[in-house]
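Reminder: ligand-aware prediction takes two inputs, not one.
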Amino acid sequence: MLSKNVRDLLNAQVNAEFYSAYLYLDFSNFYKDEGLDGYSNWYMIQAQEERDHAMLFIQYLQQNGEAVVLEAIDKPDKELKNFIDPLNFGAEHERHVTDLINNIYAAAYEEKDFRTMQFLDWFVKEQAEEEDNADDNIKKFELFGSDSKGLYMLDSEMQSRVYTAPSLTLD
Ligand code: FEO
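Here is what comes back for the chain with MU-OXO-diiron:
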C-alpha cells in the first residue's frame, strides 16, 4: 500500500508528464510551422517519450492497487518568438520535472517506501539524460544555429532521431 502523500504525488506526476507531452507537441508544431522539420521531429518524439512516462506512472499506481485520477492538462503557454526559445524553455522545464521527481523520491524515502524509490530510480537517471540532451541542444544551436548552413545541418541531425520505447517496463 502506498501512503496517501506518495500516492497523490505519483498521481500528480501523471498530469505533469502529460503536460510535458503537450508542451513538447506545441514546440514540435512551432518548428513545423517554421519549416524546421528536424526540430519538429525531435520534439514530436520527445512528446511520445513524455506520454510513455505518464503511462508508467499510471501502471505503477495500478500495480499498487490505486485508482488513477486524471485531471485537466494545462494549455502550453510559452510564447515562442525565435528558434532558440523552445530549447531554452525545454531545458528549464526538464529541471522543473527533475525537482518534481526528487520531491516524490524524498516523500517515499520519508515513508520508507523502498518499492517506490526503486521505481523512481529509473526516472532519476532519465532526468539526468533529459537535462543533458536539453543543454546539448542549446549549446549546439548557439554554436552553429546562427547561419542558414549551420541551421540546415542541425535540423538534419534532429531529423535523424527515432522513437524508442522506454527501457523500463512494468509487468
Ligand atoms: Fe518525463 Fe522529460 O521528463
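The domain at 4-159 is CATH 1.20.1260.10 (Ferritin). The chain has a mean pLDDT of 97. We will return to this case in the review session.
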